[in-house]
Design goal:
By secondary structure, the chain is mainly beta. It has a domain of 164 residues. It is built from 3 helices and 14 strands. Strands 1, 2, 3, 4, 5, 6, 7, 8, 9, 10, 11, 12, 13 and 14 form a 14-stranded antiparallel beta sheet that branches.
Length: 244
Amino acid sequence: MMHDMKMWKNILLAAAMVLPLSAQEMEVEPSADELLACMREMTVSQGNKDVAGRIRKAKLKIPFSLSVRGETLAFQYKEGDAWKRFDVRIKEKNVDIMLVENGKARVMAPAQYAQTIAGTDVCYEDLSLRFLYWQGGQMVDAGADSRIKGRDCYVVQVPNPNPAVGQFAWVRMWVDKENGTTWQIDGYDKDGKLKKRFSITSVQRLSDGTWFFKQMKLEVRNPQNPERTIALDYLEMDDLPGKK
């Protein structure tokens, strides 16, 4: 149990901000659930960690920070002159999103998962990445579409075990076959229309040889025409200690 909780904490640290990169190579094609388990494991041991960055939408820039302490990930973001906080708490089989106000934490109602943050299009669920813990996924033969940035990827599709909770009925992820990079994540509604696309646009390499994302793009798609992007945000990380 504790191993699973620590594994999930590590993936959220690298992935909640989002998306771990590792030097490991998969020699045998995994099942979808095995791939998701690898995504949770394929990250260096972080221990206590503090990272910072910003959410950028056009000229709007919202500073944020992420601190990891035990099985709790504490997110803080600045709205106006005030800092606000929510936590992601890792449990044995899932995670809880907690709102923290006046030093007291309460479990967030599922109806709030899709609530956007500080005038951006980024919501609580986007940062928590709950879907990495969903079961029952399938590997998808996407043909030529399995290549992202010229890289061969596994494509895994995972259904929401409770479609009434959260913004997506299912998600599709592109995971680099060679190094485990999650290059793109697409979230779809119940009608199979693309709602949001998360994609890594740049990375930074650390002195120990591991990688961490530098910038991630979030596209919100038109419900009537999913090919059209109607809102664009970026999550941008400050340089991490030990960057090469």
